[in-house]
Amino acid sequence: MAEPTTEAAAAPMNGAESLVRTLVAGGVEVCFTNPGTSEMHFVAALDRVEGMRCVLCLFEGGATGAADGYARMADKPASTLLHLGPGLANGLANLHNARRARSPLVNIVGEHATYHREYDAPLTSDIEGLARPMSAWLRTGMSAEAIGRDGADAIAAARTAPGQVATLILPANTAWDPGTGVAPVPPVPDRARVTDDAVAAAADALASGEPVLLHLGDRAVRGEGRVLADRIARKTGAKLLAMTSNARIDRGAGTVPIERLPYPIDQAIEALKGFRHIILVGATRPVGFFAYPGKPSLLAPEGCRTHTLATPEDDQIDALERLAEAVNAPEVALPDLGTRPEIPTSGALEQDAIGAVIGALIPEGAIICDESLTTGRNFFGLTKASAPHTWLQLSGGSIGVGIPMATGAAVACPDRKVINLQADGSGLYTVQALWTQARERLDVVTVIWSNRAYAILRGELANVGALNPGPKAIGMLSLDNPAIDWVSLARGFGVDGRRVETLAQFTDALKHGLAERGPFLIEVVL
């Protein structure tokens, strides 16, 4: 962690500088910003403090989504800087995704000076009311003398397991009045150790002779967690299955393969059919993404018992180690994942062929940011034997996270290639993040699935029983009148790109994007 110099610490500073120095000393080294007038003293302080990288985003949803992607890969918080209540409101959707991903994030929101709020200026709003649903910790600064300590408390809250959104509201006068220096970050408690009873209950279920599912999430789907879960499964005959949406999964050659619970409700019910016990390890119980007429909200079969070995807040690795010992699970060699797919040399530009190309070409160490939705449902299985890589997903269901998430991941890991698999409708929510990629020269390949529709919603029309849709309904799900020119959009933001309409063109464009350094976009016309 960066420490302030003696000279800097001794020099007079205002509250904003005290806050920035506290953030840097506490290990918060990146700020994704979209500031306004009330944040100008914080902006000015960034030039007086070494160690804080400032990344400008053109839209607040880009800033919050990038902070989410950064946190998932860095395993520590970045900060945001947003302008008053409307700026926060613009960023709420991706704060929702960050909350669901359990990403540590210090969310700083400017506010009118404390004495100015009573006059109801045009930008006055209930910032705490807007922030509360997405924030595990929330505080409005009341003085410049205390704002450094407020920032330190926000860092500790963000780092509290499994990771939280901490929102600090910064009134303008707490930034410009004299501050008091750097505040130390309070100790962050370790993850809780699960009880012996929880381990025993899971062991009893595994010994029951009945079908058992180990349902995994959080740290249990990353390297060490999955190896332990695989040992237990192979010893007991249990099956492994990850949650439908996961913040981060480490995958590819040299890892334990794992499938996810399918998103479509009928497929999810089928996948869980027959299990008599579901053991949750860092996961939440399987529920339908939406309610559907005549279909259950809880997806486990009737009579199936759910056991919680470890919550996302708990120490899942310790819990799995103790469970492995309880069932006498031996050390075992990692399973053979087979070989990565061959690149198809002919055929149509369809899902399985696209997935095979991706599976063949993923470079070692790549980070996949997946907001494919409909087009990418088969990609997971086709990439299980690819070179080792990390897979990030849309975790909260609020579309528009993919391009910003890739942006933040690239800031966190500048030595790793980032590949953003992006649905076109979702990408349009936060397309401005391409400009940030160009400005920061980030190494991101964005692949747009240009089916020119909200394709996932066409299927949902039938799922919810809305039969016989007419032209108005179909028109609300269509993006082809006029068709959106993604390559022109990308170039307008400073990112080069290609449009492809055949499998051979896609293969060539992806090879080109992976070989070059810097942002590149491929529009795949489906």
TrEMBL record:
Residues 384-524 form the Thiamine pyrophosphate enzyme TPP-binding domain. Its EC number is 2.2.1.6. InterPro entries: THDP-binding, Thiamin_PyroP_enz_TPP-bd_dom, TPP_enz, TPP_enzyme_TPP-bd. Residues 13-118 form the Thiamine pyrophosphate enzyme N-terminal TPP-binding domain. CDD domains: TPP_BFDC, TPP_PYR_POX_like. It comes from the Bacteria. GO terms for molecular function: acetolactate synthase activity. Belongs to the TPP enzyme family. This is Acetolactate synthase-1/2/3 large subunit. It comes from Methylobacterium persicinum.
